[in-house]
Amino acid sequence: MTASRSTYVNAAGFEMHVTEWGERTRPALVMWHGLARTGRDFDEAARALSGDFFVLCPDTLGRGLSAWARRGAADYTFDTYGAMTAAMLDHFGIGRLAWVGTSMGGLLGITLAAGLLRDRITHLVVNDVGPDIPQDSARRIADYVGNPPVFDTVADYETWLRRTYAPFGDNTEAFWRRMVDTSMRRTDKGQVTVHYDPAIVSTMAENKADLDVWDAYDAVVARTLLIRGEHSDVLPPTVASAMRMRGPCPRLVTIPNCGHAPTLADNAQIDLLRSFLLD
Question: For residue range 247-257, what is the model confidence (pLDDT) as tens digits?
Fold first, then answer.
């Protein structure tokens, strides 16, 4: 079984944590997580795909083991994340690559595939997000991301985590255990809270231009796959249908029995990724 490697990269002036899988000589695949998550969310998929790809799963600035912003909202932008991505690719000597992005990672992938990395991203997987996020859904996400809870015990935190991320659908106990272990940190008082800077919510509030990416979407030329959770409130069917008809005109696959967002962790979803990325 392929083991992961934990790497720290100087990326555009910030220390960036990257979990890497597979041989560096293989074709590159970047897997980018959602707003308040970490690169460890992709462990199952990255391990399975590492036989064919060199897989990089970064922690975005302000999340997981990466550094936090120095200027708050001014750093928590797609411009900064894009610069960090370019630096990460330079560090590993990567030219062309495939991209799998969940939620925020999908929007970042669209932005880069239309701009900075337009000639380098060959395959783009957009997981449960679109250029037009409903206001109620954006508000729901901003409310819980911007007001992180604090608990006395990990058990209490786990109860909250499972409830908050119930839309992920059915997953294994091992998946939820890793979610707990990689999504928490201790406060100065020894209590338990989320493993991100609460200021990252600025993407939903102050940096709304990062969420309005129709123009970028229409400019994407990479082969594109669009994935939607059956009960997703972030990617409504109307938006998914519009995405199918414009820009890269992707194939749309709906994952049953989950909301926002499919975890890409079970065999069927991993096989979907593999068949698309190797085509």
Answer: 999 999 999 99
How many Å apart are CA 199 and CA 63, to the nearest integer? 10
Q: Return contacts of 7-11, CB within 8 angstroms, 24+ apart.
A: 8/65, 9/87, 9/88, 9/91, 10/87, 10/91, 11/83, 11/84, 11/85, 11/87, 11/88, 11/91
Locate all alpha helices (DSSP H) within the chain, ordered by sequence: 43-49, 78-92, 104-114, 135-145, 154-164, 173-183, 202-205, 214-219, 237-244, 267-277
pLDDT in tens, 29-56: 999 999 999 999 999 999 999 999 999 9
Structural tokens at position 171: 């997953």
The CA distance from 203 to 34, in Å, is: 12
In total, the chain counts a number of residues equal to 279
Strand pairing partners for 54? 28
Query: For the chain, how many structural domains are there in total?
Result: 1
Say what the pTM is: 0.96
Phi and psi of 70, rounded to 5°? -90, -25
- pLDDT band at 1, cuts 50/70/90? low
* Domain containing residue 164: 4-277
- What CATH number has the domain bearing residue 105? 3.40.50.1820
For the record, the structure tokens of 2 come out as 């392929």
One-letter amino acid of 76: Y
Dihedral-angle region of residue 264 (phi above 0 means left; psi in -120 to 50 means alpha; beta otherwise): left
